[in-house]
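User: I'm putting together a small comparison set for a docking exercise, and I want a reference complex before I start. The sequence is below, and the ligand is pyridoxal-5'-phosphate. Could you produce the 3D structure with the ligand included, as structure tokens?
Assistant: Of course. I'll restate your input first, then give the structure tokens for the complex.
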Amino acid sequence: MSTESRNWRELEQKIYMQVFKRNDLILVRGKGVKVWDETGKEYLDFVAGLAVNSLGHCHPVMVKALNRQSKILTQTSNLYYTIPQIQLSELLVKSSCLDRVFICNSGAEANEGAIKLARRYGKIKLNGAYEIITTTDSFHGRTLATTAATGQNKFQEPYTPLPTGFVNVNYNDIDAVKTATNELTCAIMLEPIQGEGGVNIPDDDYLKKVRAWCDEKGILLILDEIQTGIGRTGTLYAYQQYGVEPDIMTLAKGMGSGIPIGALLAKEKVSVFKVGEHGGTFVGNPLMCAAAYEVMKYIIDENIPAHVLKMGQILMEELNSLRGQFAGIKEIRGKGLMVAITFKENIATDIMNRCAAKGLLINNVKPDTIRLIPPLIIDERDIRKAVDILNDVLKERQR
Ligand SMILES: *Cc1c(COP(=O)(O)O)cnc(C)c1O
């Protein structure tokens, strides 16, 4: 079927729910760190499906696993054991500090499971405590409960009243956490580094202090590593860089390099779900698990996190060299390949559009902030190419 034959934009605007602020591009193909639109124009992809295409687009490891498994078994329901689900779970357990796994289809669904598990734990072990402390500028997903957990009013306001039981405090403020804790608190839920909120990096000892507070009070630490996990920050999981272990961790985005999958992990003592208390039809299906297993195994075996650390350093050096030339840059921050640039004015959308015109996709995560989250397999040459384009765009704007 020809893709040129119809006005896809017009059709989308007529029949699709208008919830997305889309760039005016129709992407039709991807390979590695590049994508192409329907006119054949090539782009360097520093969005990567929103930190999803960890091995880039259509990596042979993912494609082979999908091809193979699609001819063997794709869906059985969880009324039966399936081997890819168990293999992926074993890899998750072996590669992390957690003991038990529940596979699901998305980040929001993983967090929904984490919230349910923390409440179950509170009911059984903490005299019915159910409140979860979350932070400002956090992002935990689009379901009702994860919207309630998300500390950004713009996501909440259209849907009030939201599920109760969430208390929002300032990020990177241990005293705020302490003040908000009471006999109803069962958990604290955090992103090690906030992604959607603009790549906000906490003080080095923040997570340690939160962990110590959780231990003192006997409450749970839930780390939402949906964006920071799977090598994005230079270690397989970001908690490894902060000297803490979570009681519950959630993953999704980079797990399968482009397929929809997520995971909820917990320590043994916290894994209190009993038969029938959680589930899902598609969750942990063999097709997605086979692909995610091969992708994660590749990321671990090839030590991709070490590559991320190196490339992250190069990206940061290159960006810092821009800082001296452009007074409009307010701050450059990041860890590994999760990087943001904040400008003194609200020019992120303009920068994004100008970059796209020159063949670089980036994301305007806030009105004054752009985010760079390329595939983890990016090389030095493509990093320099991207920074050159950004340099050209900033120069063009100065004229
Ligand atoms: C993207 C994201 C989510 C939501 O994941 P979805 O797959 O979009 O539901 C939750 N938490 C964090 C930290 C994220 O970056």
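The longest strand covers residues 329-335. Residues 39 and 352 are 19 Å apart (CA to CA).
User: Thanks, that's exactly what I needed.
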